[in-house]
Write a structure and sequence with these properties.
The complex is a heterodimer of chains A (351) and B (328). Chain A is of the alpha/beta class and 351 residues long. Chain A has 14 helices and 14 strands. Chain A has helices spanning 2-23, 40-52, 65-73, 88-93, 124-131, 141-146, 167-179, 181-186, 203-213, 223-228, 248-256, 296-312, 314-319, 327-337, and strands at 30-35, 57-61, 79-82, 96-111, 121-122, 158-162, 199-201, 217-222, 232-233, 235-237, 243-244, 282-290, 341-342, 345-346. The two termini of chain B are 41 Å apart. In chain B, 38% of the residues are buried. Classes of the chains: A alpha/beta (351), B mainly alpha (328).
Chain lengths: 351, 328
């Protein structure tokens, strides 16, 4: 009872904070969104371009996936954004429609003195052993066996991870749990997990900086951070046993193998996809809109913004190292929108 | 209300002015002072209550094991606060150990040895240290101090103190991979952050030492050291502890700077340089994603409650020591 009261107070506070942000730009027609930090740069850029093209103005708060889900459940924003898909039961209970908006990839960066990190080969299983502290030195026999041509130094491996709870961690640990039994048993998957070794740094930028600073460091970041900071990203073995360099074509190939047919609520997995050229750690990020909105026109505004971005956002996505949904998946998303209705009238296609 | 106050301060009745009936303005003034004092207590108690209520689910789920548990696992939803409590206490204690002698040295230098012309600029410089936002300390620690520690300090410490026998197979003192961040680096950053508080307060205390005492000591032929240890310190000993409490309070609760340099590992540290976590850093890292009504959020609020209790306990013990010191 009392805990309910406390949580209600907290919700009210969150709503109050959100509304102060809203008031400041209340004069223009606004779309408000909140949630995942990972897609925040591309959502904002699309929002700016959309406004320039005469559309509504987007106000996106990058508060984290958990906060995004909470805010859309409380209906304090027009849409919520989450890196990990929301469970089916929760979507039904809270009357939410979930759809993917854009695709991102997580890459593994390294700093091994005297070795070109982009030439290092690792398997997912070995990466799991590194992240539970089973493999502790760079010249470990298991690593050497995969990299016979490299002269690996005798220095400890320092795994870096996200200190804050994050969707990137969720994607990375989900991948490791799928390919490394020991990681699944000892650590498991989630937005924040019990790391058995290594150090935590705040944010993607923090992990990138930690790996840069520490000799023998290894860490996982969104592809954009590795690309922008000139970090060395290693090659990971994919499901077909091929060692893949993380590049946009490799992410795209993984995305095309996702099974949208079977995916409930469009929560298709793109981890460890088959295909000779597929990068193994790719994931869509999701948008949540209410099915029973008080003001259906607000939902329509969100859909129009996303539709415009699907049609015109490829250049921005490319620049920021995100991957567009394949066109046939975009059509699937639009088909989902058509299931939304208010007062018997479908909300999509909007006009 | 006002009659209750009158009985609370009977002395006022016997003075010449207090014998009169209180002027309305006087009553208003008293009331406003009373409410100013009451606000502190009310805010303190309500924070404590809200955090306890919010964290009750955690205490109900884990009982006292929440305090003693060493496993912190968001996946299996098993939460034990001991790693965070340990990290909090170790960093605060180490920071104090580093900052206290230096702060005292600065204060004594400023009051006794420093040329008068330099006193003001030096004093201002120290106070400016206190005005630097903690995020700046954090980023400086992460980007400048941590690489320096990992490159030079940690390898040297490991090599120099390798002879210290480990405690069982769980604590290896200075033997750790040189990753730069961890308990020691966090303690150093905290020490720098609390230094100005300790230095400034100690300086003010030392300035209050009766000049007569010091002159007396010097007249007896005492050296500066003898005057300091024999005359100045004994006369202000109690107040010197007060300076330390201020620093301790800040070290226990500091959040942003610590998040950057402590390494954020919620497990029991296996060396003085191991990555660790403090209560405040754990709460800061996990709060944005904790959903209302869940155990995750309850655990964080319970941690906040524990930090309150730990800070309160440490300060209470310190005051107790001080009282015994005064009585002896």
């Amino acid at each position: 009872m009392l805990t309910q009261l406390a949580s209600r107070i907290l919700r009210a506070m969150a709503a109050a904070i959100a509304s102060t942000f809203l008031i400041s730009t209340a004069t223009a027609q606004n779309i408000t969104g909140a949630g995942a930090t990972f897609p925040a740069p591309i959502y904002s850029t699309w929002g700016e371009d959309y406004a320039k093209a005469g559309g509504d103005r987007l106000n996106y708060q990058a508060l984290g996936s958990g906060a995004g889900v909470t805010q859309i459940i409380n209906r304090t924003v027009d849409f919520g954004a989450s890196d990990s898909p929301v469970a089916k039961e929760k979507l039904e209970k809270e009357k939410l429609l979930q759809f993917p908006a854009v695709i991102g990839a997580v890459v593994v960066i390294v700093n091994v003195p005297g070795v070109d990190g982009t030439k290092i080969h690792l398997t997912g299983d070995l990466l799991g052993e590194i992240y539970v502290g089973r493999v502790r030195m760079w010249n470990d026999a298991k690593i050497a066996a995969l990299n016979p041509t490299l002269k690996l130094p005798q220095i400890p491996i320092s795994p870096a991870y996200r200190a804050d709870s994050s969707g990137t961690t969720s994607i990375f640990t989900k991948y490791l749990s799928g390919v490394s039994p020991i990681f699944k048993e000892r650590t498991g998957a989630g937005n924040s997990v019990a790391w058995r070794t290594g150090l935590g740094a705040p944010g993607n930028a923090g992990v990138a900086a930690a790996v840069k600073n520490i000799k023998g460091g290894i860490g996982y970041v969104e592809f954009a951070y590795a690309a922008d900071n000139g970090m060395q990203a290693l090659k990971l073995a994919n499901k077909d046993g091929k060692f893949i360099t993380p590049t946009v074509p490799a992410f795209l190939e993984a995305a095309t193998h996702a099974d949208w047919e079977k995916a409930e609520n469009m929560a298709a997995s793109m981890l460890s996809m088959p295909g000779a050229g597929s990068w193994p750690i790719v994931s869509p990020t999701f948008i949540l809109v209410p099915r029973n909105a008080k003001d259906p026109s607000r939902v329509q505004r969100v859909l129009k913004y996303v539709d415009w971005s699907f049609k015109n956002g490829a250049a921005a996505a490319d620049r920021l190292h995100y991957i567009m949904l394949p066109p046939e998946v975009q059509d699937r998303v639009r088909a989902q929108w058509a299931t939304l209705s208010a007062g018997g009238k479908p909300l999509w296609p909007a006009n | 209300m006002s009659s209750a106050m009158n009985t609370a301060t009977p002395a006022a009745k016997h003075t010449a002015i207090g014998a009169r009936k209180l002027h309305p303005a006087d009553t208003a003034f008293r009331l406003s002072l009373l409410s100013a004092g009451a606000i502190v207590v009310i805010v303190l108690l309500s924070i404590l209550t809200i955090m306890f209520i919010g964290g009750k689910l955690a205490f109900d789920t884990f009982g006292l094991g929440f305090i003693w548990g060493t496993e912190w696992n968001p996946v299996t939803k098993i939460y034990g606060a001991l790693p965070a409590i340990t990290g909090t206490l170790i960093t605060a204690a180490l920071a104090l150990l580093i900052a206290w002698p230096i702060g005292f040295g600065i204060a004594f230098f400023l009051t006794e040895i420093c040329p008068v012309r330099l006193r003001t600029p030096l004093g201002v410089a120290i106070e400016l240290l206190a005005a630097v936002p903690s995020i700046v300390y954090g980023m400086w620690g992460f980007f400048v101090l941590a690489p320096f520690m990992s490159e030079y300090v940690q390898p040297w410490l490991t090599a120099t103190f390798i002879w210290i026998p480990p405690i069982g197979d769980s604590f290896f003192w200075f033997t750790a991979p040189p990753i730069g961040v961890g308990l020691l680096t966090a303690s150093l950053i905290l020490a720098i952050m609390i230094l100005p508080f300790i230095a400034a307060t100690t300086r003010d205390v030392l300035q209050q030492t009766p000049q007569l005492l010091k002159d007396g000591a010097y007249a007896m032929g005492a050296t500066r050291w003898e005057a300091l240890t024999g005359a100045v310190i004994p006369s202000v000993r109690g107040s010197l502890f007060g300076a330390v409490f201020l620093g301790l309070g800040r070290a226990l609760g500091e959040t942003m700077a610590v998040v950057f340099v402590i390494g954020n590992a919620i497990r029991m540290p296996d060396s003085i340089m191991a990555p660790s976590a403090t209560i405040a850093s754990v709460v800061a890292n996990n709060f944005p994603e904790a959903e209302p009504g869940t155990l995750d959020l309850a655990v964080l609020l319970a941690l906040g409650f524990l930090l309150f209790v730990v800070s309160f306990g440490v300060l209470a013990v310190a005051r107790l020591l001080l009282r015994q010191e005064r009585m002896s």
